[in-house]
Amino acid sequence: MPDGIVIIPTYNEKENIEKIIKNVFSLQRDFHVLVVDDNSPDQTSRIVRSLQSVYENRLFLIEREGKSGLGTAYIKGFEWVLERDYKYIFQMDADFSHNPNDLIRLYNACKRGGAQVAIGSRYKTGVNVVNWPMSRVLLSWLASKYVRFITAMPVEDTTAGFVCYDREVLERIHLDKIKFVGYAFQIEMKFKAYLAKFNIVEVPVVFTDRTRGTSKMSGSIIWEAVFGVIKMKINSLFNKMTI
């Protein structure tokens, strides 16, 4: 059994899911894949189930009853993984904004480089984003700068969703105490790893916006991040934040 597993949360990703799964399994390094689907109306889960006979004991599926947020999908996946013997646990989107080839670079940063959290970073070496309008690039870049300023984390891409965790990190963090359910979940996980003094490393990657399917970003997700980060920092200062 390989020591790495890739968690891919999905909601209406029928255009991408088969291709992304096949890409991961075509890599020179062996990974398992766990898809966490939020009852996609487009039957994404049906496509995954059809592939399980091809990738027997390598491709796994959790089907949830409804759309409950990115953060809770990952936590469900983390809990499933921690019941098994995987050492390295990856987060990756289904829409090819994260290049599957970079999984090996994140893996090596942990396995060989000693990182306990390896972040696929859009902003470590400038701005490496393709196919986004300038307004969205600026919003994302400023959001990461804002989070870094508030939290004092030495991380350039604080909102990145392409991450490899050493198992020890997820065992240490109290997953049931995670507050955020949207994209701010990514910030909270990094912040808790930072407070716990885990070794966080950024690996430069190129982020390419989806070409198929629709984005799940919304105004409520953005506001959760803006105001939630301030509350999160205040709680950490008064020792009210559980790692």
TrEMBL record:
InterPro entries according to UniProt: DPM1-like, Glyco_trans_2-like, Nucleotide-diphossugar_trans
Top-level division of the source organism's lineage: Bacteria
Keyword NAD: no
UniProt KW keywords: Glycosyltransferase, Transferase
Keyword Metal-binding attached: no
Any Pfam family hit: Glycos_transf_2
Classification via Gene3D superfamilies: Spore Coat Polysaccharide Biosynthesis Protein SpsA, Chain A
CDD domains, per the entry: DPM1_like
One GO CC annotation: membrane
Gene Ontology biological process: glycolipid biosynthetic process
Record-linked PANTHER family: DOLICHOL-PHOSPHATE MANNOSYLTRANSFERASE SUBUNIT 1
Annotated family: Belongs to the glycosyltransferase 2 family.
Name of the protein described by the UniProt record: Polyprenol monophosphomannose synthase
Phylogenetic lineage: Bacteria, Pseudomonadati, Bacteroidota, Flavobacteriia, Flavobacteriales
